[in-house]
Amino acid sequence: ERVLYFNNPMWPGEAHSLKVEKILFKGKSEFQEVLVFESAFYGKVLVLDGIVQLTEKDECAYQEMIAHLPLCSIKSPKKVLVVGGGDGGVLREISRHSSVEMIDICEIDKMVIDVSKKFFPDLAIGFDDPRVNLHVGDAVEFLRNTPEGKYDAIIVDSSDPVGPALELVERPFITTIARALRPGGVLCNMAESMWLHTHLIQDMISICRETFSSVHYAWASVPTYPSGVIGFILCSTEGPSVDFKHPVNPIEKLEGTLQHQRELRFYNSEMHKAAFALPCFLKREVSCL
Ligand SMILES: NCCCN[C@H]1CC[C@H](NCCCN)CC1
Question: What is the ipTM of this complex?
Answer without folding.
Answer: 0.92
